[in-house]
Amino acid sequence: MAINIKVRDNGPYLVEGEFTMTDAQGNPIEVKKAALCRCGGSTMKPFCDGTHSKIGFKGANEAVQEADPGAQSSGGTSST
C-alpha cells in the first residue's frame, strides 16, 4: 500500500500506509496510521493529541489570509 499524507486544515498531518518511524535512539516504531502534530503544542510529539483545537492553531494558508486578507494563495511560487 502506498503511503498517503493528508494535510488537515488547522490540524495534524494524517499519514496512512505501511511505514516505519524511528525514535531519537533509532528504535523502530511500526505504525499503519498516524496523526502527526503540526501545531507544536502536543504533549505526545510527534503524535497529535488534539491541542491544536484548544490553542486555536491556524494552518499556513488560513494564517496568511487572516494576516493579509488581500493575499492570494500562490501555490508556493512567487511572482516578482
Task: Tell me about this structure.
This protein has 80 residues and is of the alpha+beta class. It has a domain at 4-58: 3-Layer(aba) Sandwich (Ribosomal Protein L9, domain 1), CATH 3.40.5. It has helices spanning 51-55, 60-67, and strands at residues 4-7, 13-22, 28-36. The protein has a 3-stranded antiparallel beta sheet with strand order 1-2-3, with no helix packed on it. The longest helix is centred in the last third of the chain and has 8 residues, at 60-67.
Q: Note the gap between the termini.
A: 41 Å
| CATH fold category name of the domain at 4-58 | Ribosomal Protein L9, domain 1
**What's the shape?**
elongated
Number of strands: 3
**What assembly state would you assign to the polypeptide chains in this entry?**
single chain
Helix content: 10-25%
Uncertain runs with pLDDT below 50, 5 residues or more?
A: 76-80
Cα-atom Rg, whole angstroms?
A: 16 Å
The SS-based structural class is: alpha+beta
CATH class of the domain at 4-58: Alpha Beta
* Residues in β-strands, percent: 25-35%
What about the largest sheet? 3 strands, antiparallel
Task: Describe this protein with a few key phrases.
3 strands, 2 helices, 3-stranded antiparallel β-sheet, disordered C terminus, elongated, Ribosomal Protein L9, domain 1
Helix-strand layout with pairing:
Layout lengths: L3 E4 L5 E10 L5 E9 L14 H5 L4 H8 L13
Antiparallel strand pairs: 1-2, 2-3
In short:
The chain has two helices and three strands.
